[in-house]
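Risk mitigation, structural track. In case the binding assays with MRU fail to produce interpretable data, a predicted complex structure has been prepared as a fallback.
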Amino acid sequence: MNQKLDEFFEKVITVKLPQDRSYVDIIDQTLLPGTIRRIKLDTREEIWEAIKKLRVRGAPAIGVCAAYGMAVLANKYKAADYDAFYAQFKSDKDYLATSRPTAVNLFWALDRMDRTCQANAFRPLDELKEILFTEAQAIRDEDVQISRNIGEIGFGLLKNLKEDGKELGIMTHCNAGTLATAKYGTATAPMYIALEHGWEGSDMHVYCDETRPLLQGARLTSFELYNAGITTSVQCDNMASLLMKSGRVKIIFVGCDRVAANGDAANKIGTSGLAIIAKHYGVPFYVCAPSSTIDPKTPTGDQIPIEMRDPEEIKTMWYKEPMAPEGVDASFNPAFDVTDHSLITGIITEKGLCTGPDYGAEFKKLGLI
Ligand code: MRU
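Fallback model:
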């Protein structure tokens, strides 16, 4: 329990429902760090757009938003019977599933809501609507506990590396923080848990890759950690190698959007390069993965669909003036890359730390797949 930290978490709650549950309430992450503004998502088109445009982003948060979204939408159906209700439910679910392709949490949450709907087909529709809200709330609440468990395991690693009187250098990429989840984040959870266990913010020094092109590291992760009182720096992505060579980075934590059954992990573009550099300099590289991000149906990273995004994100978004000539090609704009499991020191899940190389066997042993 850390009151200041809890107040901060409260201020930036990523996704929530208002008391009358008539819309999904999100913090618009495209406006951060300058403006903290909450927006209402009423319709399926608004929910879809918010996910697509990264107003709400980060694999677990997308799952929570989709789950709340389905409950809110279903609550407004005027269907006469279950078949009509389910036809509408299925159409909304399939539509939301087209918003982004890589983070498996989106499909995982939508499927879980779907299974709940079908399992309760025999109930009166008003009761079914309540059950859907309860399921969405469970998805959100479970995420808090899952992140906490990941954080405790990650904190154990930090404690082993900490030298008395010295700040511990930690690097992260993109934002796998509170803004990407329901509370603690995944890659940031070890740091937040460290504060809860009495560490000072100055006991750590977190190096946040700015994370081109959408700058989640600069705009979101550094915003979070700095406001939580943790010593925080932002550096350009291409500075990571020199930082690691200097010995300042003792450990790396990243999040993930989908982990294949063999441990290959998709995360924000640039993550695999970071893992390659980390291997070269012997810096331990950990992927923080809630079980909702582990996809047993995807055997290896080669089968993970990689989202391609608008070239304007590279050339003009966030800049006062275009950063490349107007007509120049920037069509290669993948949002994610896949880190080969051989480059990963460990995958931290809520049920335990997997250290490979046979991640599939370890996931099975822990009951994760
Ligand atoms: O495109 P984004 O901002 O949704 O990408 C987010 C990431 O890559 C995160 O690292 C990942 O979703 C894990 S969030 C706990």
